[in-house]
Predict the 3D structure of the following.
Amino acid sequence: AAAAAMAPGGAAPKDDRLLIGVVSRRIDGEDVTRELKRQLFTAQRAPDKHAEVDKKMVKYVNEALAKNCGAPAKKAPRIQVSKIVLDMGLNGENCPVQVPVRDTMFFRNQGGTPIDVNLVPPESPDGAYTLKFSPDSFQLKPDQQMQVDITLHVNVTTSLEELVHVSFGPDEGYASLFLGLHVSSKISEELKFEDIELGPKLGSGAFGQVFQGTYKGREVAVKCVSFEPDYDQELGILRELKFHANIVEYVGACFAAADHQILTSRGFMFLDDVLAAVDYDARTGVVRDWRGLRVANYDAARRTLAYDTPRALV
């Protein structure tokens, strides 16, 4: 078992106090979450071995179970966990995008009293990934081991450092354990429109317009295309020519814009400024905004405008 060296005055070191608080369900606030992630994700781990922080957290969980479960100390549940940080068996490799990745872990009860176990995966508000456990709720009887299957599905290019809450006991539980999900994905061709910031217009043609822009801090050229039938064909050509010495590198494409967002190099614009810059061509009946992008519906009286969903090549 891991034994923490005592700080002056008999108090546990700061890192240990945080782990004890987390196990006792006193995790609260971004500072605590950030510090727990730091401890989990910076710890050195040999293959199939627990880091020191892993051992301490499991130790504090078992101490909390012995104190809170109501069973005699010698018969209290005593939990073993096969892994604390989940890398989905990738061993440092990047996770594929749009392809499910699977791994397994094990929970074991070496004590003399049954204990309920519940795993709560983190939510992804932007839909960047889904994480599932099967089973995600079960009871461990004395000397019983349970295999838990893990499935991770990454939808877009992302880097994950997330916490998975595991509670032991009925209702809110007697103790909590936090697993860490630590995975980086491969570069995906499908980009999120919110990550593209449009700047000055560089040019236009029959099939669309080109803007200077940035994608996650990287300077890029963004082509907003105005056609549908040949979109996939153009993507195919760009994929084949991605590493051609005389052509700018193809990064990816987005297929839908974020609702109600207009991005420029200066950030968001006020609606009055947008409406004031609308240009109407009486000859063709075409309405364009200040960037030259075609507006699908424009109502001057109601002060509203709407775009066809733009497609962008980066």
Notes: The two ends are 53 Å apart (CA to CA).
